[in-house]
## 1
Amino acid sequence: MTARMTIALLTLALGAGIAHAAIGVAPQMRAGYSAPRLFDLANAYVRDGKPGMAVLNYERARLLAPNDPDIRANLSFVRRTSGLRPITGTWFERQASRFASPNTLFWFGCIGLLIGGASLFLARRYSQHRLALRACTAAGLALMAVTLCNALAIWPMMNEAVVIARATPVRVAPISLADPLMPLREGEILTMDAKVRDFTLVHTDTGRTGWVPSADIAPVIPR
Amino acid sequence: MKPLPPRRLHPPLGAIAALLLLTAGVAHAESGVTEQIEPAEIDLGETAQLTIATLDSTQTLVTPPVIPGLEFVAVGQSSQMESVNGRTTSKSSVVYEVIPQRAGIFTIPGGSPPLVLRVRPGGASAPPASAGAFSTSPAARSGMVASATQLTQDGSAFVRLRLPKHQLYVGESMPVDIQVGVRDGLVATLSGLPSFGGDSFTLNNLSTKPEEAREIIGGQPFTVLIWHSALAAVKPGTASLTIDTPLTVRMQSMRPSAANPSGDPALDEFFNDPFFQKFFGVVGTTEKEITLASPPTSISVMALPAQSRPEGFSGAVGHFKITSELSAATTTVGDPLTLRMHVSGAGNFDRVRSGMLGSAHDWKTYPPTATFTATDSNGYHGEKVFEQVAIAKEPGNQTLPALAFSYFDPDAGRYESAQTPPISVAVIPAAASSSAANGRVPNDHEGKAREGRFASPALRPDYADTGNSVASLVPRYFQPPFLAVPSAMALAFTAAWFWLRRREQAANDSRTAVQRATSQATATWLAQMETAAARGDAQVFFSSARSVLRQALGARWHVAPQSIGLEEIDAHLGRDDQDVRQLFASADEATYSGCDAVIGDLEHWKHVVLRQLNERPTR
């Protein structure tokens, strides 16, 4: 395979990727998730006395607008009034998830990759601008690092779920007749580990593990 | 279905005795029977309560007298026992609802003096005369007019429809009572709910647990099941309404084969004797499905007038009144308020609708919600509450506009428009510029400016949707379609890097090969120099020395070795280094004239060559 063919194939692949992304973006403009919509929905659930659904939608809104003070305030308010613990997390998770929304950071990472890669090539060609090009490479790597940190911080959320039922017990086995281990509060956030029929294996932030009916919880990031 | 309990009439002798005592005007106080009626004066259409109490435990409860124009319906019974100093006394009482069927003055015998009930002519029309003998109506309601009680041929059951009126408008609903009576002793089961055919009316869902009452018709006690519902007219015209009720009746029957097997008529009396039939088990039980139908009731349905129909009329027909209220008299810009409109009264609440404020200047409003609470069992009376969230956009003294509601009054026969007064609200400016009031998501800078509001216990108000949305909450760097972009970029950079590296490698390889060949040639020529010097062969020596110097100087000056001659040497070395020039000149001379040099001279030239080889090449 000649170099020219390789470049042509790469161009095609890049174009296909962008086109696929554009196709994915197009419907989003018509319907889908937005931070204001999720925020309003969560507020409606609060007024309706459903803290579980409210927490779920505040968490989703927070994912799209991590620095919105109103979302954080209302989420804290609901958690406090529902008797739930305040929002915690490691320093890394808190800081890395506050840069910007994951979708914005995704494009930052792409731009960083473009800048870093191009500057590396140019540095080999134009040795007289080596210092400036190395600075560009560092900037590109920094953008990619920020995106990577954000992805690492967001990754645990991919398996998080919120209890949306009034009161649901954690059972020792994935059957309705199994002994209950502990009750879960509405609005509590869990981590999903596995799924068997209508039950999901979860563990709480205190480390306790058990099975809950899948209908009683809702994933923060639906897939 | 609810089985009807079999009931048997046992005419109590005590009751007959008490009735005789009542009609004879004996003082009941002495015999322990007291009577009381409240109120003593009513309008036609209203009811009074007659209470008959027995103070002596030996007395049997009395039944009310038969008085033409009055109906007595038993609505309650109570018993009380007391033991004082070892003596036990009991008190029992029965409460009857007295329903007048015409105006006049009625004397109820039995009391001392006899009770008198005055019935004034009221607005309600007198009920039509019942078919058959004297009948009473259970659980009568004021204004309700019962259709004629038409018993079945054997007089064991009936279906009756009670309506407040026989004229109504399209869309109007009215409360109705459907009554199914079964004579005591008849074992019957409802095999379905009462229903009617046709498409002129609709009936609210009937309960599977109807109200139960007792009624005496023609001296026979009946168990009456009563459904309270609401009937609504669908289209104009005159329609005849008949209620059908399916019943399963269980009755005793004699097997034909068991009846007088001998065929002798003289023995019929013996074989037909009930004792004989029960003893020998020749009596069987059979079930029969029957459908009871009420007498047809004619109802006239009028269309709603098209003239002067108010704008926004939703089809509500009835009697309504509206009020409104606001959750707070003072608010802050951006904070939500709840505006409520209460529509209460009687009518078809399913057609009671309101858009509330709609769009109001200086207010952001949301679509209203409605909840209905019935105050009766058929959903005819009640209250419907509309709730709407409104958010003030501007500070100052704002006014929420009046709320209007239009309906049709069937009694007056015209449309009515009710209106609530406007509500004043004091709107306080927000402490910080609230982005929510402007209907947009705050940016990070604004968010930091409002950090001080975090401690506020209230819920932050809604945002207006900006329209920017994503199809999935999964971050794009975890979505394969989006991952194709950086992956393709990384792949392209990697491939290009390898391509460039390979190209450079190839260039390096060719340069190295040239250097290696040059080194080998130089070594060969040096060896030839050594050999020629040892033999004293000047021609070969100078030729080899010139070749070695050409290679070295060519690499140093970046020129082709073959092109180096005296001119090149003069140009690069000038006149300072005469040894190299002299060596090239001697080489030319040895080549063309074959001069011979002494061994010592050759050693000198050898050192000159080696010195040039050891010099570092210039860049």
Note: The mean pLDDT of chain A is 82.
## 2
Amino acid sequence: MPRFAMVIDTRKCVGCQDCVVACQTENDVPQGYCRDWIATEVRGSFPQLSMEIRTERCNHCDNPPCVSCCPTGASHVEDFGHTVQVIANKCIGCKACIAACPYDARYVHPDGYVDKCTFCLHRVKEGKDPACVSVCPTHCMYFGDLDDPKSAIHTLLATRRHHTLLPEAGTKPRIFYLT
Amino acid sequence: MLEVTSTRHNLHIDPVLTVWSWEIPLYLFIGGIVAGMMVLGGLALLRLARGEDTRRYFSMQTPLLAFMLLNIGMLALMLDLTHRLYAWRIFTTFQYTSPMAWGSWLLIIVYGVLLVSALIRLPDAWPWLSRKLPVLHKLSDAIVGRPQWIAVLGWANLVLGIGLGIYTGILLNTMVARPLWNSAILGPLFLVSGLSAGVATMHIAASLLQGRAAPQGMVGGAFSALLQPMGPQHPEKDTAHALLRYDQMFLVAELVFIAILLINLHTSSASHAAAAALITSGPYAAAFWGVVVIAGVALPLVWQALELAHKVKHTVAPALLVLAGGFTLRWIMVSAGQMSEIVPVLSMAP
Amino acid sequence: MTQLSRRRFLAISTAALGATGVGTQWSALTGAANAATPAAGTVTQIPTFCEMCFWRCGGIAHVRDGKLWKFEGNPRDPQSMGRLCPRGTGAVGAHYDPDRLRQPLMRVGERGKEQWKAVSWDEALAFVAEKMNKIKAEHGPESVALFNHGFGQRFIQHTLKSWGVVNYAGPSYAQCRGPRDVGYVLTYGAGVGSPEPTDIKNTDCLVLIGSHLGENMHNSQVQEFAQAIERKVPVIVVDPRYSVAASKAKYWLPIRPGTDLALLLAWANLLVTEGRYDKAFVEQHGHGFDKFAAEIKGYTVEWAAEQCDVPAELIRSAAREMASHRPASIVHPGRRVNWYGDDTQRSRAIALLNALLGNYGRKGGMFLAQGIKIAPFPLPKYPEATKPRADGADAVQYPFADEGITTSIRDATLSGKPYPIKGWFVYSTNLMQALPNAAETIKAVQNLDLLVVCDTVPSEMAGWADVILPDTTFLERHDELLTGFGRTGWAALRQPVVAAPHDQKPSWWIAKQLAEKLGVGACMPFKDMEEYLSFRVEKSGYSWAKLKTEGVIMAEHKPITVEEGLELSFETPSGKVEFWSDQLAAKGFDPVPKYTKPLDTPAGHFRLITGRAPGHTFSRTQSNPLLHDLMPENELWVNTTTAAKLSLKNRQYVQVKNEDGVLSNRIRVKATQRIREDCVYMVYGFGHTNKMLKTAYLKGASAGGLNTRYKTDPLMGATSIHANFVSIVKEA
């Protein structure tokens, strides 16, 4: 069974938010909400500066706190790809998962259930990449099976320095940022 | 220098998490009161089962009060749910990793136990109803006549009360993402706070009835079923003192647990320390120190000690302060907790 | 006629041609059932090319059950290479924009008061034709001018020219890339063109002067920029601001604004004196090199370090770095280069620097873009002009201008010289923000008998119109065939993917209707665009049916670099690369660019600089719901130290006031280390004041509105945008 993950090359990311818009149109995200976003960190003082630009979303963690706290099982780990998904008609809108997520990756959809990045499973099932990965003009995003030694993400993780977000939270996120 | 920006702007998520507003603190508060009532009620039932005096007020009447309060709490919970038409989904499964699931199933049992506990004295407290439904007398007599059943009810109340009082604290404290809640003392703190709030509620209820005859009508009887001791008897003179002594215990424990919470957070990680700072010196400091610690615990502690030493007249004012402090504690914990977050290690570099 | 040779290529300037109430939920707007999984439905894919900016990337629209779902890149298209930028991806929002113009409107009440009555197309166009004919009778057709931007202007311009208009101009010349192209023509005999033929994909060193790729979202260039980063190509960025590009650069020169020419000349001098330039190229193709070398001798690195406030070692290292990779080393010519009023000379300096690197027509340098030949549709000739253009383009005033100058037409409208301009037709350009000193534009407009604005959104310019004609978005219409210039030439088709939601009409239809009413209907002798386009395509030997499904026709690849066998030739007076320009000297200009110190920043003030954001195009996308969401307002970048001195907190709202007393709308402070202390920065295009733009109304501040003090380039008439000093005013 594949374990889907993303690798993002922060050297190439320009923070243009193409991934944000692509996700919104692909997934009919309600206006005013976003499932992914751009974060920047600038360090130093003028003119000695450095900046990291990241596109962020739900990390589809290996140890997802949003799944263990869900009282109905709406928030669960899907067999296909081991991604974290929400079944809308099982969600009661208690928002424990939102409070439990260290990345604040979820939000309450206007229809009442909790929503977030799905890794575009509907596209992946057709052999395509998630919308954000497909649109990125700098080709800084890679999607694939973490357990497949032949996948591009496998090679990238083996050969490039990378970090995840908030590893100290113990969530074992599956989005890796190349630096 | 570090500059961090994010383009995300989701409602109630950014710039600060605010998905839980007044409904949750209200439920936590009421849940705590009910838990407190159940623990004390359970202890009293156990004494009753051993043959002690059956007329001790608070063992008999508060199950119904607890039941009504719990309804208000559950209403608040339902209002908080954004997809509430699907709330029944909780009961089609059992997610054993979710304290909320545990709590939900627990509440079902709590409701049952409260109703059965209420049966013990209901017919005497609400004569109008027992005239309409004579079966109530039969049920009440059946329980009262069987000390083993009373003992079971007693244990049930005690255990469920502790569970009810502690599970919300556990629910919050499993969340690594919210460092303010991430302390094992949170559950016990909510429990003792609930115990003192429960006692305070019973204390207020007892004071309201002192010296009043039991109403006999339908509506009056309904209300008196909540608050009135059975029949024409008054609550025992030293009931109030007993409650006060319990309360002092709980208040001292609460102070200790609050201190433990602050020490625990302050000596854990930088994220936990920053979270603690939100309530000790940050935006919630005035409410925390002023209302929760001083007005809600320290002042009632001193005041009730003076009452017990007969230095001041006995009033319900300290009990009201305890309630105010209890609600504010939960409101602060829910708001500040959502505001707290893990400070990334990488951002702590100079 | 000047000695100036005509440029070979002009893709942009002269190229041819509603939904719901206030949106709450995007899924409500698009009709999808459940946002957790996309709605099911039949999806059709229709290729077309984008008009969210001027890059014109090919895309494929996905229409689900008749409703526009999403817009993705067309893998066949050489501009998009299968991926669109955020504006292209957000083009769907232009279709659903709740603030877009819906039906023809006519002014009631005074000009600029924004009071309208809805009218039919017939009434609107009849009014326009009547007014135009009246102007023709009183003054002649030369007294009607056309301002245009965007591909849809093709047939508007055609109809008007057929009727006798001679004065037409786009702000993309005098308010954007004009100086750059003229600087290049003066040096190489050919302009830069669009898109810039920079071989970033193969380059070994990229130098960006002010260009902020990654924030300015020239799709294909950003894609190649990312490829270059991946190849660890050294990037050198010269910018007072730590742009995204600067954050990926090997060298960032945080230059004092206004001193770029000093840096360029010092670099050139270093390359010459240290012998790091391409001697073979200079020997074979250079004209006047020795005089050039002598002229720039005084521009030392130390001198430039002082002028530019950049360490000398950094200047030196950057120069040596770019030279070490020649000829695969590019100094990007930039695009919106109208900064200080000396921009043609500065662009010429960049052209000369590139010549020293010998990258002209070289792999990894600047290749020679190729086009495609598509047969024209036989159209009647335009009438002979009886009067010269009113904007001095052909005259003495700006001797090296080779396109229409918008601000000069405005000047003529104001002065009535050389003859009165009494009518303006404004297509798809928000002149109120685009032209410097809006007060002059307002004054000029008062002299008009007719002001027609044709656009998709209610811009500030539209607010002043007598008649507003609602254009369709590109998704809802056909347009002229795009003939693209690149590594290989190509043609792209624009065809409607959805119907216009209200009473909007495509510009070609507007042009045709107007032509009928003006009595020049014969100028568009085709029934519709299908007839026009299919004729052109089939006549050229391509399949119309295939083009409709594929969207793109690729030309045969021809050599674009010396490596591929290209022979270099230069259409300059000397037939060579003019290191020394005799024709400039003949007209009394500096034959080699000379540096003049910029004005000192007045105390308590900062130079206002402006730029682009990846989610917006000029001032026309702010009401697009998707793009508005990415960036609802702009921010004022203020150095953290400056902010502290002024007691400004990050994210606090302030107003910006320029030296002419113009006070901007409130704008949020971004206190950051990413900018010099002597300047402040804001993205261009915000601060809208047209009340019909409900989503964007008074959000952020208008950089264009603050541009009231401007210098005009004496060579070709471009107007500056960075010549204003501002102070920060705290909100009361």
Note: The radius of gyration of chain A is 16 Å.
